[in-house]
Amino acid sequence: MPMNTSFFGDLLQTISDRGRALLRRERRGDAAMRSESLVELCDHLLSRRGEASGVALATEILARYNDLTVGPRIAFFESLATKFGPDRTRLDAAIKAWETEPGDATAAELHAASEPRRQELFRRLNLAPGGTRALVRMREQLMDVLNRRDDLRALDSDFVHLFSSWFNRGFLVLRRIDWSTPANILEKIIRYEAVHEIRDWDDLRRRIDPPDRRCFAFFHPALADDPLIFVEVALDREIPGAIAPILASTRQNFVEPDRARVAVFYSISNCQRGLAGVSFGNFLIKQVVEDISRELPKLTTFVTLSPVVGFARWLKSELAQESSPAILSGDRAALSLAERPFWWTDPVVFDQLREPMLRAAAWYYLRARNKRGLPVDAVARFHLGNGARLERINWLGDTSERAIEQGDGLMVNYLYDLDEIEKNHEAYAEGRTVIASPAVQRLAQPPLELVPVAG
Fold it and tell me: Is the domain of 335 the same as that of 298?
């Protein structure tokens, strides 16, 4: 793959260089052309048909964009949103043609006419050497302003639409990351780790080098040396309830791979923020399950050990209400103890909090919903949407500062049962049903009517 990527990169660079020569001949003596704005260059790119000059022009546009400061960059986004939408004249004509004579041909023209011009602009910019990487970066910078600029959301949707095609599963390559992986990629694994910080090279080696550890990443040919997403896996004999033993720097008792029965996905990190909204994780987990099952056929159980990212904030909000259906009256006083500093180190508070906290967490997972009717927890939405079931809620599975702040130290296991994934996915997709084990369902108060699960 690196050889092919280098060959095509060199080829594009050659085309770009020749195209620049053509553009220079066209512009010689034309002061107006030399001073044209970035938006005018984009219009010019859309009007050209020549491949070489088009690549050169795309390269120039991306170079000029890269030099923009924040204000001009936002102005450029505004122009893309307002001046590069659908061609209104063509769209009106297509609508009239469809109304007059509905059919495959008029439907196809209506579809083509309704596409914003900026989508074709992005396709042409993508022809430049490094164009894909530059456009992913451009979308990152757009995301930085979306919270205060709703008028730019259509532009963001166009990026997601195109990236979903460009980063289709068929283009992705799964690679195992180990100690022989090139150092520049290993450095990015350290930098991109988003769940459990990798402190140094020794810490990284402990995660990818021992016989009972695995790491896999998806790559795309256009970003050959930059992972899109990666997952860290621990092989074990039973389902773990805490992260500390997995990450321990003094760990000495390794599990022989052929004696392992459980594969634990304990960290999944998206590496490219500009590709948010483009789903890789579901493909990654299923692909890794398939690959690791072929390598180790004695594995019978595939679970996550996942953080709880929003529980502490949700619980505080519920406790602030005089009467919350999520909080039993007898649990309220105990749950308020979680406001004490370092409560998890106090044995008395520890014992008083355990059962009330687990009951509240069961409500959080099984009943709490956001405005769209989806589970409040983002990690839960990801795994449930992939067809996993909520298997277990683990008391104080992670006592790191961030884990206490976000989830009062709780962690959860999601079980990927290969025979049940599709059915679970359909139940969640169609009815937002949270498939959970009987143990989790019994924690909810008042108890839920138990939903039968396999296994």
Answer: no
Q: What are phi and psi of 444, to 5 degrees?
A: -65, 135
* H or E segment and range at residue 22: helix 2-27
pTM greater than 0.90: no
What span, in angstroms and rounded, lies between the C-alpha atoms of 196 and 401?
11
Token reading at 121: 């602009």
Integer Cα distance of 251 and 206 in angstroms: 9
398 and 354, same domain (yes or no): yes
Same domain, 340 and 415: yes
Domain assignment present for 449: no
Q: 350: exposed, middle or buried (C-beta count within 10 Å: 0-12, 13-18, 19+)?
A: middle
301's tokens: 């159980």
Same-domain check for residues 277 and 262: yes
The DSSP symbol for 436 reads B
- Catalytically active residues, by annotation: 306, 383
Region of residue 396 (left: phi > 0; alpha: psi -120 to 50; beta: else): left
At 439, give phi and psi (nearest 5°).
-60, -40
Tens digit of pLDDT for each residue in 290-343? 999 999 999 999 999 999 999 999 999 999 998 898 998 889 999 999 989 999
Count structural domains, the chain: 3
Q: How far is CA 229 from the centre of its chain?
A: 8
| 305 CB-contact burial (10 Å; exposed 0-12 / middle 13-18 / buried 19+) | buried
